[in-house]
Amino acid sequence: KFQKSHVSSGVQVEKYKKKYLPAQGNLSRRIKSAPPRDLGSSDKGQAALPREPLQQVNFPDLEYKNKEEKEEEIQGEISHPDGKVEKIYKNGRRVVLFPNGTRKEVSADGKSVTVTFFNGDVKQVMPDERVVYYYAAAQTTHTTYPEGLEVLHFSSGQIEKHFPDGRKEITFPDQTIKTLFADGQEESIFPDGTIVRVQRDGNKIIEFNNGQRELHTAQFKRREYPDGTVKTVYANGHQETKYTSGRVRVKDKDGNVLMDTEM
């Protein structure tokens, strides 16, 4: 739909340029620079919690809008020295056409603004004060809410939420969710229920859906089983297993038993 709209708008703009705009003027060339990059494309890591449904935003079909304009009555038209043309309709709506093809439409009450840039990007300001920016080249939608929440929808299906408190939540296409906290901690929840937490010191805690739990540090990796058994593998390769019965068994890196309290 966006591609169709972009082509149609390009044709309409060329017609306007030939008919109304003999010279290029100063123009609102302000376009958001580089589109936002997804945080999780190269390092999925792990992830967190079901997301709330996000409101769909439909961008305008410019071909339809141009047909609609023809049917509406124009109250006045102003040609500015910088080359832009402003059309004022009897219903109060205003449309501004810039020399480079950018188009700005303002609703009668001034609460809705749609800017379609010459490169295909679209910016919408909604009555509820949401600002939605669509990056045509990257096929990415960036929505900013009045309270400061930002939501990005990438063409891959990945969704990112940037919260005012500095927290970031990434939902991957497979529904793995990764949360990055402002203090440097991370929490990831996988579709199978596995939870991975990374602390600020780099220590990692893994909670499996079968009740087992692991702690990873620079010195050792320890697994705790539901029955109370604890198995620890140290950096030098030594393994220590403590059973609920009180038995302790220690092996070297090659698996040779160094100690067993039951032997």
Automatic annotation (TrEMBL):
Subcellular location: Cytoplasm, Cytoskeleton, Microtubule organizing center, Centrosome, Centriole
Primary subcellular site in the record, as a coarse category: cytoplasm
Keywords: Cytoplasm, Cytoskeleton, Microtubule, Phosphoprotein
Cited PANTHER family: CENTROMERE PROTEIN J, T COMPLEX PROTEIN 10
Assigned GO CC terms: centriole; microtubule
Pfam families, per the entry: Tcp10_C (PF07202)
Gene name linked to the record: Cpap
InterPro entries: CENPJ_C_dom, Tcp10_C_sf, TCP10L/CENPJ
Annotated Centromere protein J C-terminal domain residues: 77-106, 146-174, 183-216, 221-250
Protein name from the UniProt record: Centrosomal P4.1-associated protein
A single BP term in Gene Ontology: centriole replication
Complex and partners: Forms homodimers. Associates with microtubules plus ends; binds to beta-tubulin subunits exposed on microtubule outer surface at its distal tip; also associates with microtubule lattice. Associated with the gamma-tubulin complex. Interacts with the head domain of EPB41. Interacts with LYST. Interacts with CEP152 (via C-terminus). Interacts with STIL. Forms a complex with STIL and SASS6.
Family per similarity comment: Belongs to the TCP10 family.
Keyword Phosphoprotein recorded: yes
Segments of this protein annotated with the region Disordered: 24-56
